[in-house]
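To: structure desk
From: M.T.
Subject: fold request, one chain
Message: Could you run this one when you get a chance? Sequence is below, nothing fancy, just the single chain.
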Amino acid sequence: MITVTDLRKVYQQGDRTVVALDGVSLHVDAGQIHGIIGHSGAGKSTLVRCLTLLDRPTSGSVAVNNQELANVSDADLRTARRRIGMVFQHANLMDSRTTAQNVAFPLELIGTPKARIKAKVADLLELVGLTKFADAYPAQLSGGQRQRVGIARALCSDPDVLLCDEPTSALDPKTTDEILELIKSVRDRLNLTVLIITHEMNVVKQACDSVSLLDSGRIVEHGDIQKVVADPSGRLSQALLPMPGDLPDGLPAGTVLDLLYSGARATEPVISSIARTFNIDVNVLAGSVEHLGEHQFAHLRIQLPEGSDIAAITAHLLSNGVAVTVKEAK
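Reply: Done. C-alpha cells follow.
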C-alpha cells in the first residue's frame, strides 16, 4: 500500500547543507497500522511533510496503492493529497464553527453538494462517537473530543491512508487509550492503512502492527512488532520491553540471564521448567508480560546459582523458543 524508496530531503541554509532525510526506504502493507518512532531531530516532521507532499522530496519516491506521488504535477497535487488523511497533534479546529461544520469544511472547499455533505458528516460523527456533539463548538469539547473531530475531518475525503502526526502527545493516558482504540476501529471499519508518527513507545505498544525507528534521517530498524521485539539486542526491542539497567546490589554469586519469548510460550511456566529440569533454584529479578499489537511477549531477568550448567540451560531454553542473553556471570 505505502512504499517509500530512497527518500532524501536536503535543505540549503545559507552556506550550510542540512540532510533531513538520508535515503529513507520502507514498505507498509495494506491494512496495517505502522509506527514511525524517533527522537526530536530524527527527521519525523520532514518525513510527514514529504509523505503529504507539503514538501517535495529532493529525490526518491513515495507511492500509495502503486501510484507515485512524489513527482506528481502541481495540477494533480490536490487530488493526490486527498489520498492521505492527516491527523495532527492538535486538531486545529475553527472556534467559530460547530463540530459538524468543522468536519464539513474540507468538503465545502471542493464544492461538494450540501445534501452529500450533510450525509457524510452524519456518518463520520457516528463513526467517531460524536453524534450528540454535532452542534457543539470546540470550546465546549474535551481534548479527546476535539481530536475525534480531527479524525472525522481527516476521513471526509475517503483517503487510502490515515497519517497521524503525534496524535496523542497532548492527551492524558486514559484519553490516549481511547483515541488509539478509535484509530484501530477506524482502520478495521474503513480498511485503511495507518501511519502513526510518534516519540511515545506506549503508542507503538498499544496500536501498531509494525514499526520503524528513524534516527538522523535514516530508518535504522524496521519490521513487524513480533520480528523487531524478538531481537533482544535491537534498540526497538530494548525500548518496547525494557529491563532495569543496573543489577540490584548484594546479589549472590551466579549468572544473570535475560529471557525473551512470545506467543503461547509467553504464558508457559518457563521458570519452573528450568527449576525442575536442572534441579536448581531460579531467582526472578525483574520481568513483565505484555501485549504489543496482537502479540503477547514475556521478558524476564533471572539469576541462576553458581555452578549451574549455563550451556545446557541455554540450549534447553533456545530449544523451547526462548531468546537468551547473558547479562552477567560471576
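Reply (cont.): Residues 242-329 form a domain with the Alpha-Beta Plaits fold (CATH 3.30.70.260). Let me know if you need anything else for the meeting.
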